[in-house]
Amino acid sequence: MDAAGYAGLSYWHASLPAGGLAPRPPLSGDTDADVAIVGGGLTGLWTAWYLLQREPRLKIVVLEKEIAGFGASGRNGGWCSALFPRSTVSLERAHGRAGALAMRRAMVDTVDEVGRAASAAGIDADYVKGGTVAYARSAVQLAAARAEVDEARGFGVDELELWPADRVRAAGALGASFDPACARVHPAKLVRGLAAAVERAGATIAEQTAVIRWAPGRVTTNRGTVSADRIVIATEGYGATFRATHRRILPLYSLMIATEPLPESFWDGIGIAHGQTFTDFRHLLIYGQRTADNRFAFGGRGARYHWGSAIRAGYDRDPRVFEHLRRGLAELFPDAADAAITHSWGGPLGVPRDWHASASYDPATRIATAGGYVGDGLSTTNLAGRTLADLLIGADTELTRLPWVNHSSPDWEPEPLRFIGSNAGMLAMSVADAEERVTHRPSLAARVMGPLVGH
Fold it and tell me: Could you give the dihedral angle defined by the CA atoms of residues 379, 13, 247 and 428, in that order, rounded to the nearest 10 degrees?
């Protein structure tokens, strides 16, 4: 694929400056390195960046099948948030209160760290920290908003607020929760800018280089073999395409649309400022932002899981889901109903069996891994990069003592159980929303599914 082909991946890719997607040269044959990184997304690039901040003389080679930022790192919703796939209550059950609070503090701090590090690296990624508004559009959702704010106050880390109805302007909103720990970001600008910064710091990025397999001390590609003292596996949802990690991660598709730019008067009317992101309390997740050029970038779940954890370009676009998103956006903001949809896209994110992201290092094999972000990766990749950098150089830090370090998720079930269970779970979230609309009570289906999705 050439630069024009990569521009078609998403609105984010299409809106990069001219020349911003030109592929770098592939690996030119066998070579050696101190650290070989498999995957040119944010996890791999942040790891390289922080390693070089700590040890500038390291020889680092990043291997990417397409171009840096091809996958979820360049196509996501642009939320640099403090969200983690597992809830604080769930983390407390698994790791104790101290561990849960440490994880929450690290995630909140990471939102600011992404902005600071991007600035230090000379990256303009449209970063504006405006927080997230989560609309409550029914009595059931308003109760959920209150419970979320009360829970946050109980733990004392996240500074959530409950907003009254007169402070929000989404259609039918009875109120909202507001989380200040989120920034609006242009993800493709961030990941492509980070790739350039990592190169300037001394790393080599070999694009259009397909990794075939890895083993301690060696990564084999279609362009040659990299002999490396340490290896980092940073493939997220694409880990399902490798035999060694096929059942460790499930690729779940999330799709998005972008509208034409809308006038300032429109944004003033709906009360969404630059830097703010938004969602609501439905169970089948939606997410949106006001882009720097005044578009809606709006996405959500709804695309089905594909047999055998298959990942194909054709799965990036599903007209049924795009229409569902268009209707959902118009339902929230009726004045946007006639806005032209200029871009539609999607891609796979990575889901571990227990919905618990992790950052790990095995000193025996000298192989590090990180991932399983379940769509919360724009910030969590940065925390992973800092954590892996500390682990790879043998440092004992607050980051290396966080409870997600060396967490091991169970494998996903073999087919057909994986196919049946994943798609049944997606259907259950749709059923839960319908159930609440009819009964006006919290969904029983959602309560049953809660423990399976990190709540």
Answer: 80
- Cα 276 from chain centre: 17
Rounded-to-integer distance, Cα 285 and Cα 260, Å? 23
**DSSP codes of every residue in 430-455:** HHHHHHHHHHSS--HHHHHHGGGGT-
Q: What is the identity of the amino acid at 226?
A: V
Question: In sequence order, which ranges of 230-282 are alpha helices (DSSP H)?
Answer: 264-270
CB-based contact 47:62 (threshold 8 Å): no
pLDDT at position 452 is 55
Residue 105, class by beta-carbon neighbours within 10 Å (0-12 exposed, 13-18 middle, 19+ buried)? middle
pLDDT in tens, 230-274: 999 999 999 999 999 999 999 999 999 999 999 999 999 999 999
On whether the CB atoms of residues 206 and 40 are closer than 8 A, the answer is no
Nearest residue to 7 via CA among 188, 143, 202: 188
pLDDT tens digits, residue range 156-195? Answer: 999 999 999 999 999 899 999 999 999 999 999 999 999 9
Residue 302: band (very low, low, confident or very high) from pLDDT cuts 50, 70, 90: confident
Per-residue CA distances from 116 to 47, 239, 379, 397, 412 (Å): 16, 30, 12, 20, 37
pLDDT tens figures, 417-440: 999 989 988 888 888 877 778 887
Q: What are the Cα distances from residue 265, in Å, to 13, 83, 184, 338? A: 27, 31, 20, 15
Q: Which residues pair with 161 in a beta bridge?
A: 178
What's the pTM?
Answer: 0.96
* Helical H segments across 312-376, by residue range: 319-332
Work out the number of other CB atoms within 10 angstroms of the CB of residue 167.
14
- Confidence label for 331 from pLDDT (cuts 50, 70 and 90): very high
Tell me which residue of 129, 131, 128, 127 sits closest to 161, measured CA to CA. Answer: 131
User: What residues have CB less than 8 Å from 371, skipping those under 6 apart?
Assistant: 43, 234, 235, 236, 239, 249, 350, 352, 357, 358, 377, 384
Cα–Cα distance, 424 to 171 (Å, whole number): 30
Mean pLDDT of the region 367-373: 98
